[in-house]
Amino acid sequence: MLEVKNLSKTFGETKALSDVSLKVGRGEMVALIGASGSGKSTLLRHVPGLLTSDKGAGHVAVAGRKIQSDGVLARDARRVRRDVGLVFQQFNLVGRLTVLTNVLLGALGRTALWRAAVSSFSPEDRRLALESLSKVGILDKSGQRASTLSGGQQQRAAIARALVQKASVILADEPIASLDPESSILVMETLSKLNREEGLTVLVSLHQIDYAVLYCPRVVALCCGRVLYDGPGGNLDAEKIQSVYGRCAAGMFGGLNEREAAPAVRLSAPPSGAGLDRGVLNA
Questions:
Q1: Which domain holds residue 44?
Q2: Could you read off the pLDDT of 217-232 as tens digits, one per residue?
Q3: Of 24, 98, 137, 279, whose CB neighbour count within 10 A is largest?
C-alpha cells in the first residue's frame, strides 16, 4: 500500500533521512519509533508529498501510484494524496466551527470550489460525517464547537475527518504525544479498530514504546535518519532499544517491563485480533 524506496532528505547540512526504504502492506498497522530528530515526522510528511526528497533520491508510492520521484512531485500528486489521511499531534481543527463541520472538511478534495466556499456539502457527505463520528465514539459531540472538546476527543474528530476523506491510508504523527493516558488509550484503540474492521492501513509514529508494542504487530525504528529495526514488536529487547535511543533508552524502556509498565499499559488489554501477546511486555 505504501512504498518508500531509497529516500534521502537534507536540511542545510543535516541529513534527516538517509537512503530509507520501507514497504507497508494493505491493512497493516505499523508503528514508527525513534528518538526526537530521528526522522519519523520527516518520513511521514514525504508520503503525501508535503515534503519532497533530495534530487535524484528515491521515490514514494501510494497504492502503486508514485506521488514523488527523485525530488519532484508527480503531476497527479493531489489525486494520489486523496488516499492519504493525516492525523497530527496538534489536531488541526478549526476551533470556532462545529465538530461536524470540521469533519466534513475531509470531503473538500472531492467538493466543488463554490460548494466548499459556502460550506454546502452533499447529503451523502453529511451522512458519512455522522457515521464517521459514530465510529470514533463522539457522535454526541457533533454540534459542539471543536474548541470545547478535550484533547482526546479532538484527536478522534481528526480521525473521523480522515474517514470522510475516504482515505485508505492513515498517517498519524505522534497522535497521543500531548494526551493523558486514558485519552491515549481511546485514540490508539480507535486507530486499531479502524485498522481491523475497516481494513485501513495505519502508519503511526510514537514516542511511547509500550503503546507501539501493544497496538502494532510491526515496529519500524529510525535512528539518525536510517531504518535500524523493522520487525515484530515482540522481538524488541533492551539491547535493540538501547541501539535506537542510546542514552535516552533507560527512561523509555521501563514500559516494556510489566512490573514497571506505564499505567496506560496495565489498564489496557491488547485489542482483539491485534495478534499481540502480553508476554512481549516482559521482553
A1: 1-83+169-187+197-283
A2: 999 999 999 999 999 9
A3: 24
